[in-house]
Amino acid sequence: MTTNANVIQTETSDDFLIDSNEYLKSGIHIGTKFKTKYMSNFIYKTRPDGLSVLNLKKIDERIRLAINLLSNYEPQDILIICRRENGWKALKQLEKLTGIRVITGRYPPGILTNSNLETFTEPKILMVCDPWPDRNAVEDANKVGIPVIALCDTNNQSNKIDLVVPCNNKGKKSVGICFYLVAREYLRKRGVLGTNEELPAKLEDFVDE
Asked: Please, are residues 67 and 156 in contact by the beta-carbon 8 Å criterion?
């Protein structure tokens, strides 16, 4: 039944950034048993086991919006934060390919707000893997007035987030596929890659097994 339901929600969407089967294999659409009011807008259904299933078309649409927004900025003006280890491999690969700055692990306090720090930095846009463990970075971005993009699961709040990208932000494969697409489409939109040109790295290079 689950497979059929997934087909139903994707059968009219033949223009995804990546084959819908790749999305489904990554589990990008599998949420948690808890859902916040805002994130309910992105939920396709609730499975018998209580897990929420995110709408794949809306996931793809929001990834596109995030990429379109990021492509307006130079790599050095973008900062991506990920405290949780599930995104580290993907982000290191993204940084290598695009030059976009990333911080994995603990967020260094004050780097966006304290100009006296040697590590002080002034990005023009921030992206986080999860607005809960990365909440200090979100708070600082709000203080200095830069937009925030966040990967949000069904249990996340959308407070202080300018663009929510609904997805399973706890799975290594789902986070990996998100940043694979961000890297590829960012380079295409910036003219580094041709329209249909692929990355010199594979999807597997972004994903921890």
From this structure: no
Backbone angles phi, psi at 101, to 5 degrees: -75, 140
The tens digit of pLDDT for each residue in 161-207 reads: 999 999 999 999 999 999 999 999 999 999 999 998 999 999 999 98
Long-range residue pairs from 104-109, CB within 8 A, at least 24 positions apart, any chain? 107/81, 107/83, 107/134, 107/136, 107/137, 109/136
Q: What are the CB-based long-range contacts (under 8 Å, 24+) for 158-165?
A: 158/36, 158/38, 158/39, 158/131, 160/131, 161/131, 163/62, 163/65, 163/66, 163/69, 164/38, 164/39, 164/42, 164/62, 165/59, 165/62, 165/63, 165/65, 165/66
Q: What angle do CA 23, 127, 145 make, to 5 degrees?
A: 150
Side chain identity at residue 158, one-letter code: S
CATH number at 2-206: 3.40.50.10490
Structural domain spans, the chain: 2-206
Encoded tokens for 19: 């084959």
H or E stretch at 2: helix 2-10
Q: Who's near 44: CB < 8 A, 6+ residues apart?
A: 5, 9, 29, 53, 54, 55, 56
Is 182 exposed, middle or buried, given 0-12, 13-18 or 19+ CB atoms closer than 10 A? buried
